[in-house]
Structure formats: C-alpha cells, structure tokens
Write a structure and sequence with these properties.
The protein has a seven-stranded mixed beta sheet, with helices on both faces. Strand 4, helix 4 and strand 5 form a beta-alpha-beta unit. It is globular. 40% of the residues lie in helices and 23% in strands. It has a single domain (3-265), classed as Rossmann fold. With 267 residues, it is of the alpha/beta class. Mean pLDDT is 92; it is low at 1-9. Helix 1 packs parallel to helix 2 (51-60) and helix 5 (149-161) packs across helix 10.
Length: 267
C-alpha cells in the first residue's frame, strides 16, 4: 500500500502489540459462527501473525491449514508463533492465490480485505480455490460505524488537532465496510447463500501507556500517522488522548470493538 496512507504492514511483533491481540479475540467468535466440521482443508488469506490460523487449529481440528500473506515479516512471525505440522505459511498475493482450483474446503480471511487493492479479484480468487459447496468467509472491522473504538478515539483526537488527518482515517478510506456493501461484494464474486453477522468484543488497556504505546510503533495507518508527526505534535496528540479517554477506578481503559463477518457458498 502507499506509504502516504501510512499502511506499513511488515513488523509482525509491532502488529501484534497494536492489533493482533484484539484479532485473537475476534477470530474464535468468527469460527463459532461458521460452525465448520472437523477434518477440513483450510486456507487463511492475509494470515498476518496467525491469529485466525491459530484459532482454526485450536477450535476446528482441521486436516491442514495454509496461511498466505503479502508481508514477508508477517509470514515469518506466523511461522514462529505456530510451528505445527498441519499448518504452513507462505508469501503470496490475495488477488493471485498460488493454489489449485477447488482445492480447499474452507477459505477465510480476517481483517485484511479492506487493505487489498483489488477486492473483487481477491474474492473471486477465494471462490476459485474453494471446492464446490465449500465456504468462503471473511471479516473486517466496522470502520464506518466506529466499531473499533481504539481507532475512533485516536482519529477524533488527531483530527481535532490536524484536520488533514481525516484523509488517513479508516472510516473515510473504507466506507464500504458495512454489511450491505460487503455482502454485495461476496455475491458479485459468485458466492451464494450470502449472509452476515456482527462480532463484538471489548479492548481493555491496563492504563493509558498500554493504549498509547502501539500508536508509536508505526505499523498500521494510525500508528504510521502518529510516527510521522514531529515530536511536539505527537506530544500534543498524546496529551489530548490522555485527557479524553475514559478510565475505570483502576485506570484501565475499555473500548468497544465490532467486526462485520460475511460468508457464502462456492458453486
């Protein structure tokens, strides 16, 4: 992705601190909704640091799982996190999957489709790889609805200080992350019996520093924007967030998280 959009997705350890820990809460709930049988062949498109792949292994007793991601750093991190013989990871393009037609029972993707430049092509590839009657399913954060509270709070503070920051915010960049628009993408890719659900969780930070530190690491749009600021501007943003975020009696910060999940059947 363009560096002007602050999409830097290479450092697996930094992503884990920023988003991976919350993805690991959503992934099992997504799989509960899918209700897949055991012993299936899975493909995890945009596997990142293996949050979804690990959940598949833990909950679904798969025959095997293949994870594919465009980031060499993420693939390396995934291999370290999940050194299991039934799971393999490789670098690849979501819009040109390096797998044979009709070779997977379950083709899934977590929190990545909005970052793929050619989403229709990626979904068409996911359908191509799925066996007839197999499932294609994915989930993305509810950016337009403010469903990722930690991001919404960050961008509200950033835009109050710098109105130009709005061009980088996920709600502006990914307005299609709604159930209707995502279901239409799935149907356009040739999937049938398409439906959706909301998957909700809570992101709890032990204190303000636990919330703030991931934004200083540069991995992802909001952290990339934060890292691009001059030190004095970054300090102003930090203070505004510190002043505005809610805290409980123990100084913990709890913010809501919501993703939209979509599934369909390959013909």
């Amino acid at each position: 992705m363009s560096e002007t959009q602050h999409d830097a997705w290479q450092a697996g350890d930094r992503y884990e601190v920023y988003m991976g820990r919350w993805s690991r809460q959503i992934a099992p709930r997504f799989l509960d909704w899918l209700g897949a049988a055991e012993g299936l062949d899975w493909l995890d498109v945009g596997c990142g640091t293996a949050a979804l792949s690990a959940a598949i292994l833990a909950k679904c007793n798969p025959a095997d799982v293949i994870g594919i991601d465009a980031s060499e750093g993420f693939v390396a991190a995934a291999r370290d996190v999940l050194p299991e013989p039934r799971v393999s990871f490789q670098v690849g393009d979501a819009a040109a999957l390096p797998l044979a037609d009709a070779s997977r029972d379950m083709v899934v993707s977590g929190l990545v489709l909005n970052f793929v430049p050619d989403r229709p092509k990626a979904l068409a590839e996911m359908r191509r790889v799925a066996r007839p009657g197999g499932s294609v399913a994915f989930y993305v954060w509810d950016y337009p609805g403010g469903g990722m509270g930690l991001m919404r709070a960050f961008w509200e503070a950033a835009i109050a200080l710098d109105p130009a920051a709005s061009e980088f915010s996920e709600d502006r960049r990914f307005p299609f992350c709604t159930p209707d628009a995502l279901m239409e993408l799935a149907r356009a890719a040739g999937l049938s019996a398409v439906d959706s659900t909301a998957i909700e969780a809570e992101t709890v930070f032990r204190d303000f520093e636990d919330y703030w530190r991931p934004f200083t690491l540069g991995t992802g749009p909001a952290p990339g924007y934060c890292a691009s600021l001059a030190p004095d501007a970054r300090d102003r943003l930090r203070q505004k967030l510190s002043d505005s975020l809610p805290r409980d009696a123990d100084r913990a910060i709890a913010l809501p998280a919501r993703a939209w999940a979509i599934r369909g059947i390959s013909a």
